[in-house]
Amino acid sequence: MAIIPMHPVANNEQTSSPSVLSGRRVLETEAAALSQLAASLGSSFEQAIEVISAAEGRVIVTGMGKSGHVGSKIAATLASTGTPAFFVHPAEASHGDMGMIVRGDVVLALSNSGESKELLDVIEYTRRFAIPLIGITSGALSTLGSKADVTLLLPACPEACPNGLAPTTSTTMSLALGDALAITLLERKGFTAKDFKIYHPGGKLGQQLMRVSEIMHTGDKLPVASENISVREAVDIISKKSLGCIALVDANGTLSGLITDGDLRRHLLDDNIAQKTAKDIMSRTPRTAAPDMMVAEAMAVMNDLKNTFRKITTLIVVDNTQKPVGVLHLHDCLRAGFA
């Protein structure tokens, strides 16, 4: 089956295709609803954030049908951004899974009408055991809307479905409201990219967030020595460590220079090279990286276009006192999947 890519419509290009017009109408209807939702946020949203923040347990998200699918995504987003959460199917909850919900948790229930019969047992359970209940619904006077401790009311916006039946606009608003909760909680906690990496170790996202400290050479593999050793000794260390370089330090252990295979070749014909010290031929301003630098950033340092005349394949990794703690080689980056 051929796949036809979508191309942006140029400013001077108009189309009256029924399919395109229908698609635009759906998106415009839902976009307008999101604008109303954003304008409606107020004290109830702030209350919901306070309730979730104060919880000692997890956020239990529940919903039936399309609301359930949206709820599963909201639970996943919360969990991946530092707010422990998981989804409980309301029908399964009535047949034993209610035991997954305990004191200290918060229940986030989704139902556009607020009258989904499958939610009734969950609502009753939260009232019986004093478990905070946050409802996302368009029915302020519905069972969910009236029983919830905090009700996040969806604006009365038409569904994008021409029959007004298929959940479209309402599920889009619920999904977006879940994102708003998750990201607000993330910002409130000061959740960082480093924290994000903990929950996303795999895939492309995990790779993008990988730190230099995760793949650099350390310990006995680290080629480091005093700047006062002889060039012959430096060559010996470079050969043994097999990283194509040696980091040189002063009497305080602070990085003072670097010798690479390229430096050795450039000085090969120097007079009395055998009598010189490493300090005599080292590069005194080597490029460095920090342990918590992202690997992608370190790759950018190596690929700096201003230095194309001199290929950089290794970076000395230094701590905040400028003492060498590792070596990052281009090959390490390539093995980790960076190109």
Topology of this structure?
Elements: H1 18-40, H2 43-54, E1 59-63, H3 66-80, E2 85-87, H4 90-93, E3 106-110, H5 120-128, E4 133-137, H6 143-147, E5 150-153, H7 169-189, H8 193-199, H9 203-208, E6 224-226, H10 231-241, E7 245-249, E8 255-260, H11 261-266, H12 278-281, E9 288-289, H13 295-302, E10 314-318, E11 324-329, H14 330-335
Helix pairs in contact: 1-7, 3-7
What does this protein look like?
The structure is a single chain. This protein is an alpha/beta fold and 339 residues long. The protein folds into 2 domains: 171 residues, Rossmann fold, CATH 3.40.50; 124 residues, Roll (CBS-domain). Helix content is 40%, strand content 14%. It is built from 14 helices and 11 strands. The strands form 3 sheets. Strands 2-1-3-4-5 form a 5-stranded parallel β-sheet, with helices on both faces. A 3-stranded mixed β-sheet has the order 6-7-8. Strand 10 and strand 11 form a beta hairpin. Helix 1 packs across helix 7 and helix 3 packs parallel to helix 7. It is elongated and about 90 Å long. The two termini are 31 Å apart. The model has no long low-confidence stretch (mean pLDDT 89).
* Helix content percent band: 40-55%
The description of the largest β-sheet is: 5 strands, parallel
SSE ordering: HHEHEHEHEHEHHHEHEEHHEHEEH
CATH class of the largest domain: Alpha Beta
Uncertain spans: none
Approximate shape: elongated
**Domain tally:** 2
Q: Quickly give the CATH architecture of the largest domain.
A: 3-Layer(aba) Sandwich
User: Strand portion, in percent?
Assistant: 5-15%
* SSE class: alpha/beta
Give the strand tally.
11
Mean pLDDT: 89
- How do the strands of the widest beta sheet line up side by side? 2-1-3-4-5
Report the C-alpha radius of gyration, rounded: 30 Å
CATH superfamily of the largest domain: Glucose-6-phosphate isomerase like protein, domain 1
CATH topology of the largest domain: Rossmann fold
Assembly classification: single chain
